[in-house]
Amino acid sequence: MDSLFVQQVLNGLITGSVYSLIAIGLTMIFGVMKISNFAQGDYSMVGAYTAVFVMAWVGGWLGWIGSVVAAAAVVGLLGVVTERLVFRPLMTRWTDIDMIMVSIGLYILLDNLAQLFFGATPRMIGDPFGGTTVHLGLASTSLLRLFCFFFAGITIVCLELFLNRSRMGVAIRATSQNRFAAQLMGININQVYRLTFGIGALLAGVGGVLYGTLFAIYPTMGALPTLKAFAVTILGGMGNIRGAIWGGLILGVAEALGGNYIAMEYKQAIGFFIIIVVLLVKPSGLFGRKEGA
């Protein structure tokens, strides 16, 4: 097998795992609360900046791990606060346009606040492993990028265990299937909403640290992760966590292969071309169910 092909697949899987993590948060919020949160990528931006400041205090791999934990805590709390103060008051409205406009407003507000407090100069998260390279047969990558891939995987496995094995996880799944039936079964819907939004934001925060480890960090960086997250959730099927996982990996690999074999200029377009084809053939997404099925 061509080593260049294997190398690009590996690069795509690493990038795609980060896309998946951010998209899972978005699809969880949509699946349970029916909110299309356009500020999801900006939660990633806040997580990335949190990592920058934590790593300025604590260096090395311990600082990197600490930055992920700090980003999860800060952004998770930010998600809980915005759900309670911004989104929940609008949940009784009969139209979704209010919710969409509010999330776009939140996205612009977070962008501008980041510009005000952090400035426009791009920043990078330092490599705690000193640029160590790992050789994997036909491909190679840095230890830090490999660490990002496994960390994203471990986070997704922990989320799956929480949703399938814990009482609150079952309540979240029940609410996503039918919130009125869940209420009749005695589930506290407001608590489920608060926790779901907090976890969705937390995943975006962790994804932001991984994204900021691979790419530059700047105040408007949230736009691209938001776009990718929507692309992944539409590709995999809105509200479907497994679809978000596979959708992220497919998009990451498609971008890497397309950018290498066709042209880097068309890298972004290639991923979205695949999405258009999938939606024309299967409008519910690769793993989504048809309405009424």
Automatic annotation (TrEMBL):
Belongs to the binding-protein-dependent transport system permease family. LivHM subfamily. It comes from Desulfoferula mesophila. GO terms for molecular function: transmembrane transporter activity. It is found in: Cell membrane. InterPro entries: ABC_transp_permease, BCAA_transport_permease. It is a multi-pass membrane protein. GO terms for biological process: amino acid transport. This is Branched-chain amino acid ABC transporter permease. GO terms for cellular component: plasma membrane. It comes from the Bacteria. Its main location: membrane. The chain crosses the membrane at residues 12-31, 43-62, 68-87, 99-118, 138-163, 192-211, 244-263, 269-288. Keywords: Amino-acid transport, Cell membrane, Membrane, Transmembrane, Transmembrane helix, Transport.
